[in-house]
Design a protein that fits this description.
By secondary structure, the protein is an alpha/beta fold. It has two domains: about 1-265, P-loop containing nucleotide triphosphate hydrolases (Rossmann fold); about 280-485, Nucleotidyltransferase, domain 5 (2-Layer Sandwich), CATH 3.30.420.240. It has 17 helices and 17 strands. It has helices at about 1-15, 20-25, 40-55, 80-90, 105-120, 160-165, 185-195, 215-220, 240-250, 255-265, 280-285, 335-350, 365-375, 395-410, 415-425, 440-450, 455-460; strands at about 65-70, 95-100, 130, 135-140, 150, 170-175, 200-205, 230, 295-300, 310-315, 325-330, 355-360, 380, 430, 435-440, 465, 485. The protein is elongated.
Length: about 475
């Protein structure tokens, strides 16, 4: 009898290899026991059909990986779908390998993995696999190392579990749960690992859209051409708590960020702690260049701290921060202070700005000294120094505040995805004296994979008021007045 049952399961697994919806329909006893009154929800069917259709179309390699992103409100059955996809992938393809992670270790253990354990217990294919606190793997001793799904908390200091996810010629499954809070570095490492040819590569990311920036957000914006996306409104899903949703709508309003994230599956206008609001960035990148005649022309230089960071020159005249694009040099090429100072001198001769602000924090100090030795004027700004306004913990927080003021006033910048990411990732908090302070550049680099050098150079343009000079030629004109402005 055991052999007959196993043969039947084998035939079923073969039939469902490229049909995850059929697998979920037949692998569980719907309407009986714990599943009495339960059924597959419409949005879950759509997602399962999407994966199946793309598999049947032959999307098998890294260039045609199946990338699925679902942003949703609460209570829609997301964790159940995660469990079904894992069990389907494991049961229908020998030696499938995969990793599932989540925003926090607690979420991963108590919710995501607990849901997998529940559905494994109810699954017809349960005899094929062993479920532990950290893995689901084949009961066949010859395959227990090669046919497995690992529950792996992410770590920025230990990315091997994601970098080593290779399984050429077979199937790879990667699941990110509550993906909005998983740092960009983990996304990038995982993406770089999915390079095997002739391999079924399936990457599914799920979550409430809690952040207005980051890689999960970009699945629905910058990288939308690569990802198949769904945004699920809890109100449209059968079985959700309409009474609770109604209370939230009354308390917060349908267009509030709270309601957008927790019900509508819509990304907030800005993250809760985001210093430069997304809607302001959008306006600045899409707005027309204003007339800045008679306004001061300012140049800035943010100095790189490391070889993979950039030294960035920025320019603006009045509200125009777009006409002259930024100039960037890899920090590895500018370790010699004389080279960077010489580059600055060339730009000073070319544009003759009314003021030149240079980041003198740390390694920037010698650059300031060298430029002055060449006989040119520049103003060193220490990002960590005291701000002129006691509300801000240091100059960096103050300059970003002035940048936001400038953007609100109609300042324009170039439409650049990298600059957008840097600005959106600049979150704030308060210090022990209740002053506003920005998160450290190192934290931002962990989130988006690069240092916010360009954004810092943009903020540096707003270090202090500037008086116009008669020698100004930077934007193709000179002026003889003495206008003071930002």
């Amino acid at each position: 009898m055991e052999v007959d049952i196993n043969d039947e399961l084998v035939a079923l697994a073969i039939e469902c290899e490229h049909d995850p919806l059929l697998f979920v329909e037949v692998a569980f006893t719907w309407g009986e026991g714990e599943l009495e009154g339960r059924s597959i929800r419409d949005w879950q069917r759509v997602q399962l059909i999407s994966i199946g259709d793309r598999l049947k179309a032959g999307e098998l390699d890294a260039q045609e990986a199946i990338l699925e992103a679902i942003a949703s409100g609460h209570g829609i059955g997301k964790s159940a779908l995660v469990a079904w996809i894992i069990l389907w992938a494991m049961a229908t393809k020998e030696d499938t390998r995969g990793v599932v992670t989540a925003n926090t270790e607690n979420q991963l253990k108590t919710k995501t993995w607990a849901e997998v354990a529940k559905w494994h217990r109810l699954c017809a294919f349960k005899p094929w696999f062993t479920m532990t606190a950290t893995a689901l793997f084949s009961n066949d001793k010859a395959h227990e190392k090669t046919w497995r799904m690992d529950m792996t908390p992410w770590s920025e200091n230990n990315t091997e579990a994601f970098a080593g996810l290779h399984n050429e010629g077979k199937r790879i499954l990667l699941i990110f749960d509550e993906a909005s809070a998983i740092p960009d570095l983990i996304w990038e490492v995982a993406e770089g690992a999915l390079t095997d040819e002739n391999t079924e590569i399936i990457w599914c990311v799920f979550g409430n859209p809690t952040r207005a920036n980051g890689r999960f957000r970009e699945c629905f914006r910058k990288f939308k051409h690569r990802w198949n996306t769904q945004q699920i409104d809890s109100r449209d899903v059968e079985g959700t708590s309409n009474e609770q949703i109604k209370k939230w709508e009354e308390d917060f309003g349908e267009n509030s960020d709270f309601f957008k994230v927790r019900v509508r599956g819509v990304f907030p206008a800005s993250s809760n702690s985001q210093y430069v609001p997304t809607e302001i960035i959008d306006a600045a990148m899409s707005g027309e260049i204003p007339d800045s005649k008679g306004m001061p022309f300012i140049m800035s230089l943010d100095v790189a701290r490391g070889g993979d960071d950039n030294c960035v020159f920025r320019f603006r005249k009045g509200l125009d921060g777009r006409s002259i694009p930024p100039i960037s040099y890899p920090g590895s090429e500018m370790r010699d202070s004389m080279r960077l100072a010489a580059a600055a001198v060339v730009l000073l001769d070319r544009y003759k700005p009314d003021a030149f602000f240079v980041d003198e924090t740390g390694v920037g100090g010698p650059i300031v000294d060298r430029i002055k030795q060449y006989g040119y004027q520049c103003i060193g700004i220490n990002f960590a120094s005291k701000a002129p306004d006691p509300m801000y913990a240091n100059m960096r927080a103050y300059m970003y505040f002035k940048l936001v003021e400038w953007l609100r006033a109609g300042g324009v910048i170039e439409d650049n995805d990298d600059l957008r990411s840097e600005l959106e990732a600049t979150d704030y908090k308060t210090d022990a004296k209740d002053r506003l302070i920005l998160i450290d550049k190192k934290e931002i680099k962990k989130l988006i994979g690069v240092s916010p050098d360009d954004a810092d150079a943009l903020a540096l343009l707003h270090a202090m008021p500037v008086r116009i000079r008669r020698t100004q030629t930077g934007f193709g004109s000179s002026a003889a007045d003495s206008t003071v402005g930002y």
